[in-house]
Every structure is written in structure tokens, then in C-alpha cells.
């Protein structure tokens, strides 16, 4: 008689074999674009446009797309299946190609995906970590502390062989709710566009409840040790994504003491230059922890991060601070992980002791794309987003959509959304966006935009009305434009634009 454990393992191996046999591609083709978020040439192009794009060519329509902008820097990633299988190693990346825009470079390559990496059949556990209660402008010391937190969090997931589905920082903080507030959140305090917070999700086996409980217990212990705030996604009945259950509040004094004890010699100056490092390889548990641990051991902190798996290939996009005393230009570069580390050490300006390389074997053959060092800029924000404190505050607006594949690409949709919001805002930026090709030949995506309203108000209710009106008007304009833009039936389009993340669940109507 076969034991349940053996049966489960055999079923999993059979599933992986069937999936590998059924795929029509031998590798994944990808393109990365690094550059300043807003320069003299306008916003960063979200994709590389060909001179005469062939809309019937499958390569013209990426199946997965991700965009991340922070501190004045941006990175975009596009992936699609490829039949190419004859290249050395598991990852191949080409040299940087100048796009014609200042400090903006594209990197193209191929990777062999990991067929055993699953995230569709697993249950998602999402976590919101608070690393501060002031506006986001991290110092070198805070960047090292954030790298340590990322290393610890992803290490906990790796110990349980749980895949990291996504990790992003900084993100919008979630205000503390009160009993008197309405259940739909319509009167909750407005949120900061971004704050010193980290949001990540792992995949857990729904049949192993003990593993999830153990993971959450370890999370709580980590939060207690460092004084960080911890919230878990609220999965109770009638709850939606964007609603959180508080486990532990942020302890400012304990966090300050832990940070000072761990990194007493680190500078408390805010970095003025930074660079983007994109680390690419087949998805596997433990790779993010290995990459960040190697950097931290060399004295390199993390200002911001966008980590996700697309087509079972992991993209670790990190914004790394350049040392204040470093005067070099640090040009763009691409190559192997082991060759990239000395360059990053020169950029950080540190001479650390010999680091522990025990975990670097996981990513020894991964590839890295480095942007040139660029100037940083930090967002204007109030301490706790109170429209009562200032009338000129950036606010978040969330977007969710579902479109038929090969009708309207994600970059084109985001451009249309920005144009629709332009009459109501003095500034509108895409902070984060991600889309995937799903079953039914449809593309689903989510995005967060940061807007600064044209009209300045200090009254909370007035700002809420302005944001809601702007989102509804923009949504109506997009509804009118999309059918002609992508030659798509309006009845097959689902889209929701809202200043409340939890309201994205109400996207049943065409828009």
C-alpha cells in the first residue's frame, strides 16, 4: 500500500512532467528596460517599440508584463514564450542597448523556466510589513535594515519551500481602522501613495495548514524582535484584497534600537544616486534570500525592490544606493552574477569582511543587468497623508482590468489611463503595474498610479470626492476609447479604476 506522502509526491511529479510535455516553448524570452522615471525626453517607455510592429506576430504581444517606478528610477519587464533552446547555461542576456533616451537601456535575453515552480494551484498568503510611520526617504542605514528584513522574510518562505509570488517596497501604507468606520471603507482616512512599507506574498499548499500557521508564527516572532509592524491579508467572509488584519503594530523605539545595534556605522544620510540591478534566473525557493543576503554581506542595502515570477522565471529588480563618496559614473552593464558582485561593491564603496557564500550557489549561474548610476528623487508627502496638513499631496489610485489577449497591450492601456486622468491631475505616474496571460486567452492586470490633483484642498471629504470623480470620469473615457483602440467588443472588457484598493473587486461591469 502506497503511503499518502509518496502518493502526493508521485502526483506532483506527474503533474510537472505533463506540464513540461504540454508546453509549446523551450525557453522564455525577456526584455528589461532601465532608466529615469521622468527625464527631459518624457516618461520611461514601458516597452521597446519596433519600427513596423506586426500585430499578428506573437512576439509583438508579451504574455507577462511588469513595471516599477520609485525614487525617480524605473524598470519594465516583458516576457513571452520562445522556441530557442540552444544557448549555454540556464540564462542568457545580451549587452545593453541604448534606446535613444538619456540613461535608458534595454537588455534582452532568454531563460529556461523551472517547470516544478508552481503558483497557480497554491493558496496565496499576503503580508504587509511596516518599517516606519513617516514619509518615505530612506537613509543608507535604513536601506541595510530593509535588506535584512527582505532576507529574513524570504528566508522563512524558503525554509518551507514556499515560492515568493511577489515582493514590493515601498508600497502604500494601510491606515488603522476603527469600529465606527463603514464596512466598505468609504469613510476611511486617505492613504499615502507610498510609505516605508513592504508587501509580499508566498504560495502555500492548501492541504498543509500547519505549515502556514508555522510561517505566520515565525513572522510574528520576527516582527516582535525588530519592532516592525505586521498585517496579514484578511481572508474572512466578505473581505477583499486590500483589507488587512493587524497582528502587531509598528514599535518605533524598538525598531530604532534594533537598526542602530545592527548597523551602527552605517550612514544616516539620504542617498542622492542609485542604480537598478535586475537579477534573472529560473524560479526557485530561496533565490531572493540568497541574492539579498550576498549584497547585504558586502555592505549593500536595498532602497526599493520589485520581485516577481513571470513564466516561472524570477526577476529580482532592486534599487541600490550608490555611496556618497563614490564619484564614478558606474556605466550600464550586463553579465553573470559572480562578475556583477565586484562592480556592486565598488558602487557601494564598502570593503566588508569575507561574506558567507553558502547560499550563493542557488544563483551562481544567474544573469544580472545593471543600469548606470542615476540621480534619486523622493516623493512629496505628508507624514500620514492628511489632506488637512497640505493641499498638495500625492494620492494612490488603483486599477484592475481584464482584456482579451492581443487586443490592447498593457503599456498602451496604462498610457490611455494616464491620458484619461490628465484633465484632473497635475501629475500622474505609474508606480507599479503587472499583467499576466490567464486561462481563457485573457490578460488580467493590476496597477497603482500616483496622482497629484489639479485642485488643492485640505478638507478630507473634498479630496475624497475629487479623487472619486476623477477615477469615474477617467473610467468612462477609457470605456469609450478601448473598443476602437484594440478592436475589441466592449462587452468583453472589464476594468475598474478606484481610489480604494478594496473597491477593485467590483469590476463586473464593462468599463
Structure in words:
- It is a single chain.
- The chain is of the alpha+beta class.
- It folds into 2 domains: 26-48 and 59-382, no CATH class; 395-505, 2-Layer Sandwich (Alpha-Beta Plaits), CATH 3.30.70.380.
- It contains 8 helices and 23 strands.
- The chain has helices at 4-22, 140-159, 209-226, 252-262, 287-297, 337-348, 410-421, 460-486; strands at 27-36, 38-39, 42-43, 64-70, 73-82, 91-93, 97-98, 105-111, 123-130, 164-169, 197-204, 229-233, 244-248, 273-282, 304-310, 313-321, 333-336, 367-370, 374-375, 395-404, 425-438, 442-453, 494-498.
- The strands form 3 sheets. Strands 9, 10, 11, 12, 13, 14, 15, 16, 17, 18 and 19 form an 11-stranded antiparallel sheet that branches.
- A hairpin with a 2-residue loop joins strand 4 and strand 5.
- Helix 7 crosses helix 8 (460-486).
- The protein is globular, with a radius of gyration of 22 Å.
- The termini are far apart.
- Mean pLDDT is 82; it is low at 1-9, 11-24, 50-55 and 382-391.
Helices and strands in order:
Blueprint: H1 4-22, E1 27-36, E2 38-39, E3 42-43, E4 64-70, E5 73-82, E6 91-93, E7 97-98, E8 105-111, E9 123-130, H2 140-159, E10 164-169, E11 197-204, H3 209-226, E12 229-233, E13 244-248, H4 252-262, E14 273-282, H5 287-297, E15 304-310, E16 313-321, E17 333-336, H6 337-348, E18 367-370, E19 374-375, E20 395-404, H7 410-421, E21 425-438, E22 442-453, H8 460-486, E23 494-498
Antiparallel strand pairs: 1-5, 1-8, 2-3, 4-5, 4-21, 6-8, 7-8, 9-11, 9-12, 10-11, 10-15, 12-13, 14-16, 14-18, 14-19, 15-16, 17-18, 20-22, 20-23, 21-22
